[in-house]
Amino acid sequence: MSSTVDKVKSIADPVAQENGFELVDIEYVKEGKNWFLRLFIDKATGIDLDDCALFSEKVSEKLDSETPDPIPHAYYLEVSSPGAEKPLKTEEALTSAIGDYVHFSLYEPLAGEKVYEGTLKDVNSNEAVLDVKDKTRIKTVIIPRKNIAKARLAIKF
Q: What pTM, to 2 d.p., does this model score?
């Protein structure tokens, strides 16, 4: 994680908690000649436009009041919901996804596959257990946690 993202997280996370939101993810990227700071928030009942506007205003005030400025050049601040395919970046997020349909991208192939989608049955510090559809049957796959590059919720088709 970049130091800019770390600084923004330390500022935005308390603002999120004070307002009943979960700060799900932060992106700080250059697209063309412009920089974008994207904050993704969520809450149990879902996020609407008013939530995004409120959080944007409050976090913008906090960022502007910091000395030294954590982002000293021009950028666009965007606040949104993480969407239906919310990333699962924390231990708490993974644990709360037990029973949900998830997508895992792996660093190294497991049984010849680098991507798995299925129902998360269990997770601990060493492994994640998925029930994956294999043609007409369901098989259980145990994935070492250290091999999981990215995890997110998935939409089952």
A: 0.81
HSE (side-chain half, CA atoms, 13 Å) at 62: 18
**Burial class of residue 11, CB neighbours in 10 A (0-12, 13-18, 19+):** middle
The reply to whether 130 and 63 lie within a common domain is no
Same domain, 97 and 28: no
Domain count, the chain: 2
In this predicted model, what pLDDT tens digit does every residue of 75-129 receive, in sequence order?
999 999 999 999 998 899 999 999 999 999 999 999 999 999 999 999 999 999 9
Neighbouring C-beta atoms of residue 136, cutoff 10 Å = 5
What is the Cα–Cα distance from 49 to 79, expressed in whole angstroms?
9
Q: Give me the helices (H) in the chain, please.
A: 3-18, 49-65, 91-96
